[in-house]
Amino acid sequence: MPRKHKKIRFAWALTGSGHDLEECLEFLMGLEDVDVFLSRAVEEVLVMYKYTERLRRAKIRMFRDSTASAVPVGQFYENNYHTLVVAPATSNTVAKCVAGISDTLVTNVFAQAGKCQIPIIVYACDTKPVVITPAPGQMVTVYPREIDLECSRKIGEFESTTLTTNMDELKSAVLNRIKCLNESCS
Known about the structure:
Radius of gyration: 16 Å
Number of strands: 8
Strand order of the largest sheet: 3-2-1-4-5-8
CATH superfamily: Flavin prenyltransferase-like
Number of domains: 1
Structural class: alpha/beta
Shape: globular
CATH architecture: 3-Layer(aba) Sandwich
Distance between the termini: 26 Å
Helix content: 25-40%
Low-confidence stretches: 1-5
Oligomer: single chain
Largest sheet: 6 strands, parallel
CATH class: Alpha Beta
CATH topology: Rossmann fold
């Protein structure tokens, strides 16, 4: 019996930011063929914002940060993913990625996607000097530090990495990636 063709997928990594988290969830749940990689922090944030059940109902394959060696990262070596999206990306995750630190599931998938030459799209939360963002039950104003802004700029300079700074840019980058994949497949 012939082997069934494996469908290559999006890998979408969620970090512990509430900034545009709801919008990111809505968008990723509308995509086909996507696996979600959850940081430990986002699992806490999903509960705080009451999004856990919504993500669970979406019947999306999810990988949790529950192993010391980030076992799910091995899928990047098996040609399972055509694109990694990290959205929303906290300043902590962005700084670790820029410094080459891969000590969490999300920073590990970022590193391995880069090493496997898989295109990466990052929606960094701290790209502007003033950010108005939701916190549980209220909107807050935050003032990213210069180091946060610098790391966001630097991550956009990584090869095969697209930096996005808002939801419109994120959606456009993902849709352009889908278009590119469709054109090269036909």
